[in-house]
Structure formats: structure tokens, C-alpha cells
Design goal:
The complex is a heterodimer of chains A (about 190) and B (about 200). Chain A is mostly helical and about 190 residues long. Chain A has helices at about 10-35, 40-70, 85-115, 135-170; strands at about 120, 125. Chain B has a single domain (about 25-195), classed as Lipocalin.
Chain lengths: ~190, ~200
Amino acid sequence: MRLRNTRANWGAVAKFLHWVVAIAILGNMGLGLYAAGLPMSPAQMDAFFWHKSVGLTVLGLVVLRILWRLANPTPELPPTMSAWQRVAAHCSHFALYLLMIAMPLSGWVIHSASGFPMQLYGLFEVPNIVPESADQSAVQDGAAIVHYWLFIAICVLVVLHVLAALKHHFVNGDGVLVRMLPFSRASDPIRGG
Amino acid sequence: MRLPAIFLPPALVLALSILLPTSALGADEWEVVHEESILGFATTQMGSRFEGRFDFSADMRFSADDLEASEFDVTVDVTSARTGSRDRDQALAEPEFFWFEEFPEAYFRTTRIEHIEGNEYQAVANLTIRDITHEVTLPFTWEEKDDEARVNGKVTASMDGGLTMEPLEWDVGSEEWVKDGSIGRETEVFVDLLLVRPES
């Protein structure tokens, strides 16, 4: 198993981070929607507790992902792609990274302004990132609106991301989708790809 | 039937002696300096401690040498509860907790005040929250300050005390909230008052 990326393929670390973050994001979107729909109750507090814990985990993992990506070669796009498709691919990936940072950050702001105590996975206190001098209610409401629209944006981009990957595989017939799959042979330079 | 005029003065005295609480005669009356006083509470939420406070009004009569006539009659504006979290404050208004609409006030009325030792006392009181009353005991210290501590020429005193209670006994919260530690089962209530004695 190769850990680092090459110009042609994703290494194990990049793949691992991609899929863990993907699963965490999808799960957390469901959890967030579920929690927001509950009345104020222990069940809601529990759901938000997990939502916040997972969300902050995603933030940490995405920071790692970006650092790892910067420290590694990025596999090239297939030469068959046109110029606008390359621009679209780069833009949407950049936007996804941006959203993956902004989403948990806006959640963290809501959390801080709400004044609710919170221990990440019950282990240690999550620091407040909103200054005490700020109008907590206004900050909370503003951040909640941002959090909502980021959610919509992520939904749109994830759908585009998945459709584009499927198009690469089924229409273009290139290895863009396969090279990100876990355990795919394409990532193994010895056995192919 | 009209009473002859001769009966009026004794009747007046009798009426006054019933209307005026006898305790007013024995123990000193104190006024709470609200800007310098706290009626607060603390418990945990998901394992983290938080504090809140209430606005209140209080009739305080206290003389160390006349505990018999000393009494505290406190009315708490529960709707004023502030815990540093809007969401939490809103939750407190719900029927599951204080139910502001139905029960906007809580009452703490002493039935007796006892001396423990030195400046330590304890107040045995009926605490009414929502429509439930239980007897509680509030240990406290009462310290009358020296002349240097006078406020606007008035003698001051401090009262510090606290007790631990279980809000569930007053139907505040529910077993569901406390069983997994979403909210602590026990709540500390603390008073830290600055008082002045108006007539001196």
C-alpha cells in the first residue's frame, strides 16, 4: 500500500481522508437535520452533541487533508478533459474544501454563541470562539443562517461531485472515479493503473 | 347595630395589633441592595457547570438577638432567570421546567431561623416553586458590618448562604432530563446579599 500520492494516483492517506470525511459529512447532514427538527429535549441535546463532535472532527480532518494535499503531488486530470471542464473541476473542488472548512466553523460559532457547554465526545471542553462582548443572540442567528445556506451549497456541490465522478466512469471511461476508490488496483503502481 | 363611640379606640387598637405583624416590632428590617446582591443557582448540563441568577424581592427581618421575630419572605421572579444562554433561558419557560405562564413566581418563606454558632445561622423555610412546597434548610452567615462599611449612612450587613436541592422534587425538569446527565439532578442555590438597615 502506497501512502503518498503520485502524479497519476491517490495514495492511501488521501483516499482514507476522502472517504472518512465523505461518510462523516453525509452522516452529519442527516444528524443535523434530525436534531434541528426535534423539540428541546435530552434527545435533541444528545443529537447535537454528536453532530458537534462529528462536525469538529471533520474540521480537523479537512485541515489535515489540505495539508496532506499541499505536501503531495496531485494526480492529474485526464488529458481528454476540455479547458472549461478543468476549470469547473478545480473550482468545484476548491469550493468543496472551502465549504468543508466554513461549515464546521459556522457551526462552532453557533455553538459558542448559544452558551451551551459542550465536551467533544465527552472528553474535553470545546473553547468558545465568539468574544463575550459580542451580541450573542445576533451572532447565533447570523451564524445559523450562514450554516443553513452552506448546507444547501454543500448539497448542491456534493450532487455535482458525485454526478461528475459517475460521468468520468460511465461516459468518459477514464480512471478518475476508480482511482479514488479504496483498495482499487488503479492506485497500485505495481499491479496497474 | 352601631357600636357606641366609646368602643372605637379599643377596637382600633385591637385591629391594629392584628394587622401589624408583631415581628416588625422585634427584629430589624433590612433592605436588599440589589445591585450588590445575587440570588443564583448552578447545575450541570452535559457534564459542564453553568450558573444562573434570578431577580427577586425580599422582606428581610433579622436581629441576632431576636431570632424569634426574624424572618425572610422572598418572592422570586422565576421568569427573570438568566443563565448565559438564550436557548436554555427559553427552555426554562417551558411547562417541563418552570412554566412561566402558569407559575411566574417562586416563594421562600421562613418558618424559623436558628442560631448555629458565631455568625452562622440556618433558616428553615417553605420553598414554593410551581405549585409545590417543600421545607428546606438554608444555612447562612450573617455579618453586620462596622461603621466604615455604611452605605449612605446606613448600617450594612452581608448574608451568604447556599443549599443543594433537587428541582425534580418541585416538578422542575423531568426524570428524562436527569437520568443520562443531560442536566444535573442536583442544583446548588446560593444567596450573596448586601443589606442596609434603613432606620439607623
